[in-house]
Write a structure and sequence with these properties.
single chain; alpha/beta; Rossmann fold; 3 domains; seven-stranded mixed sheet; 15 helices; 18 strands
């Protein structure tokens, strides 16, 4: 028997009431309610919403979320979650930040307008003075939202929940140690100090760099600092089925087909794919410098056309790392036979200026036939040359052209072609660290090994024939497990 018109209306009202009740109490349902059919559920968004609900309930106080671009992170975390949380907790405050104030204001504007539209779910309204997207409040309550760019001022307001949505704009920013340090200091001196007792922090971002804000916080957590729960959503994941087969799955096939993911990977390259889409800043196979390109030797050639030293010095002592110790200094010895180049020795250690001077002396004594000694004309380099130029011959200041990435790309062809040889790890265990830094470059925490290497190889690629040097067995003792000595 068909329903009467009055019964249809009553049923519709019951359904609408049920939808509203679900939206009030569930973030994923609220997003669906707000989307009005335009927004669709996805497994990774359901997981994300469940974690944010745990934050709202005080079950998680430190949450990191790593996701690819354009996969719904800002829609969930920065645009809708603040509305859902403030509707349920109108006396609480949220601080919302992103790499630029304009972007944070955009998020805030959408959240404010969403609350204006759906505040009736919780019987709340915007305060009359909420015209500003930088700061708005809840009528009759103490709560509200403050938006700011990373590095910007957020003084004067506390937060029950602080949201950081992508602290870095792009790879160029994340690759800058100066900007990474600035973000880290802003987090510790400004944002962290605004958190209310028992408050929560949500850091949602695409991983650009091993030493980005997330990387630093996770490193501190391992050392006993604040503990973080992490949600890592990779564009492509791998699992094992009941038959032991490896199954590769794409994250959001409802929106991106496998072909689209593959097209993106091809367009942006291996190391950006690993960072942005896999949330692994150091690709397994390597970025610019691939893991399987390296050649190894157990016995170095007995004769070389040319031998050189190459030094990458740290900054002056006042630029010491936050731990109070200087940054790394790297010195390498390279030999060339025709087109082939051989890494013969390396020293890498945290050194202040006096230790750097002694290291140059020691490596020079150890390798007297390395006549040219390349020293980058930056940081402590000029001071090293000025101190030793009357004592050690062949100190050459190098003012490299292009950035670090350009210099590494210039020598990558020689490495890929098999013209660069490293001592086998069986005789030089430190080579493992050498390779890992090269694989991680330019997204790794350190690049001093790569800088010294690219400086050497660029020089050896352009120099002509040199005097040939012979070695006896005793002169090759540097290629023992004592190589890469520490001072």
């Amino acid at each position: 028997m068909p329903l009467l018109r009055s019964e249809e209306v009553e049923l519709q009202l019951l359904l609408e009431t049920e939808e509203k009740e679900k939206a009030k109490n569930s973030l994923i349902n609220f997003m669906e309610y707000d989307g009005q059919g335009r927004w669709k559920r996805a497994k990774h968004l359901e997981l994300l919403c469940s974690k944010l609900e745990d934050v709202a309930q005080g079950k998680i106080l430190r949450l990191m979320i790593f996701m690819p671009p354009r996969h719904g992170k800002s829609e969930c975390v920065s645009k809708k979650f603040p509305v859902w949380f403030l509707g349920r907790n109108p006396n609480e405050e949220i601080i919302l930040t992103s790499y630029a104030a304009d972007l944070a204001f955009d998020f805030s504007r959408i959240a404010r307008n969403t609350l204006r539209e759906h505040g009736h779910l919780w019987d709340v309204e915007l305060a009359e003075d909420s015209a500003s997207v930088g700061r708005w409040g809840i009528k009759g309550h103490r709560g509200g939202l403050v938006a700011a760019g990373v590095g910007g001022p957020i003084t004067g307001r506390g937060a029950k929940i602080a949201i950081i949505d992508d602290p870095f704009k792009n790879w160029q920013e994340a690759a800058s140690n100066t900007i990474r340090e600035h973000v880290d200091q802003w987090y510790k001196s400004t944002l962290r100090t605004r958190l209310a007792p028992g408050g929560a922090i949500v850091l949602v971002m695409t991983r650009w760099h091993e030493d980005d804000l997330a990387g630093r916080l996770l490193k501190e957590a391992k050392a006993g600092g604040e503990q973080w729960e992490t949600v890592v959503l990779s564009a492509q994941s791998e699992s094992i089925n009941e038959f032991g087969d490896k199954i590769k799955e794409w994250l959001w096939t409802e929106r991106y087909s496998a072909e689209e993911y593959k097209s993106i990977k091809k367009a942006i390259g291996a190391y950006l794919w690993a960072s942005l889409y896999q949330q692994k800043p150091s690709p397994t196979e390597g970025g610019i410098l691939k893991r399987d390109w390296w050649k190894f030797y157990r016995q170095a050639p007995g004769r070389f056309d040319e031998i050189i030293q190459s030094w990458d010095c740290t900054f002056k002592d006042e630029k010491a790392s936050k731990s109070g110790t200087p940054d790394y200094v790297v010195g390498q010895v390279w030999g060339r036979v025709g087109a082939d180049k051989y890494l013969l020795d390396q020293v890498r250690d945290r050194m202040d200026f006096p230790a750097t001077i002694q290291a140059v002396r020691t490596l020079t004594y150890k390798w007297p036939k390395a006549r040219a000694k390349l020293i980058e004309d930056k940081a402590n380099g000029p001071a090293v040359i000025a101190t030793l130029k009357r004592e050690i011959p062949g100190l050459i200041p190098v003012n490299p052209e292009g950035g670090k990435v350009v210099r590494a790309q210039a020598v990558s062809a020689d490495i890929e072609a098999g013209n660069v040889y490293l001592p086998d790890p069986s005789i030089a265990p430190w080579v493992h660290d050498f390779i890992e830094e090269c694989v991680a470059f330019p997204n790794g925490a350190f690049d001093d090994i790569v800088d010294a290497m690219s400086q050497s190889l660029n020089r050896l690629c352009v120099t002509g024939s040199r005097d040939k040097f012979s070695f006896n067995a005793s002169e090759m003792d540097g290629l023992t497990k004592k190589s890469a000595w520490n001072l």
